[in-house]
């Protein structure tokens, strides 16, 4: 594992701990001023900029205070020069939600770039699988 990969892995793991602890300063650390995030809840066009990103977290922290988990289950990192990405599966839910759907995982993708010699998150994408049509085969119309 390269030094860059270790640095990025540590950055992402530290961010996940901050999310779980409701530590807003820790969540914002190592994020670009012009971050773009596509999240599970609206707005559908995502949020742009560190100030808009900051505003998304208090409602999540309030939900998480109900005893929800936010724990990285698996994490892969790929580095190429001054850009990198990581993707992870995260156990994210209240005890009741996780008991009802123990297999459900939040899917997390992070795009990073090197700025002034350090890695920063420039893009974040969170999603859950769409299980609304579970049990039915998706068939494309001819």
Automatic annotation (TrEMBL):
Coiled-coil features, chain-numbered ranges: none
Domain SnoaL-like: 8-129
Pfam families linked to this entry: SnoaL_3 (PF13474)
Transmembrane segments: none
Entry protein name: SnoaL-like domain-containing protein
Species of origin: Streptomyces radiopugnans
